[in-house]
């Protein structure tokens, strides 16, 4: 799917849903706050969210880490419109820079004025990005030395009843969401190429996964 086609699809899906997105998603997008707690962003750190949607995570993170700088990228202009309004309402507009862009192929410097990031997060967005492997590669390429990539998304549901797994996936497919069953293998391969460390955690009997990939520091 081309970037333009995917952007149009996301805008179409969320043109109306964006107004109730956060209210409904909090019941099944599990692990997002654990991801934000694990960012451990220091004063002056730059934090980028790819697929930032309504800005919910950025608002929570910017409140928790008041001395860090935040950036959000999303392919849907409709979602970013909601994010911009929400951040302004919370008094965070001056601390969060938003931009329309494709998570699989983006130039951080031209989009948000920062070339490398200390923290990058992907919260339930890889399961909606057709070229999700490219999004992982792009995120890792944009990490500063010693920086970390944080991911939370749907898992394999391997320890949940089969009927639940089937019902969940059929329902998610209605929203163009597909759990990435090979996520761990892709991350292991990408981490090995870069000499990065990988922490992969299964949550809620496999309902979701939480991931941290930490880039290595250059030799001193």
UniProtKB/TrEMBL annotation:
Coiled coil: none
Gene Ontology molecular function: any one: methyltransferase activity
Domain Methyltransferase: residue ranges: 43-170
GO biological process, one term: methylation
Key words of the record: Methyltransferase, Transferase
CDD domains membership: AdoMet_MTases (cd02440)
Pfam families per record: Methyltransf_31 (PF13847)
Superkingdom of the organism of origin: Bacteria
SUPFAM superfamilies in the record: S-adenosyl-L-methionine-dependent methyltransferases
Cross-referenced PANTHER family: TRANS-ACONITATE 2-METHYLTRANSFERASE-RELATED
Protein name, UniProt field: S-adenosylmethionine-diacylgycerolhomoserine-N-methyltransferase
UniProt source species: Aquamicrobium lusatiense
